Amino acid sequence: MTTFPLFSRTEDAELRVIVLLSVMLLSACNYWSSSYGKMPDKELRERNYRCQMASSLSAAEIQVCKNIRRECDVRADNGIYVC
Known about the structure:
This protein has 3 helices and no strands. The protein is an all-alpha fold. It has 2 domains: about 1-40; about 40-83.
C-alpha cells in the first residue's frame, strides 16, 4: 500500500524556507527593538534631539528616527520621560 505525502518534496522545501525566513525576520525585529530598549536614557535623549533638529534625512535615517521616537513613547508610557 502506497501512502501519499501531504506535500511534495519541492513544496516541503519551499515551506521550510518560508518558515526559516520568517523566524529569522522575527528574530531580527526583536534584536533591533531590544537594542533601543537597552540604550541609556541620556543617549536616547541626544539621538532624539538630533532627529528633531535634522533637516534632510534619508529614508533609512527617517526609519531610525521613528524607532527612536517609538522607544521614547514606550518609556513615557512606563513613566520614564527622557525625550
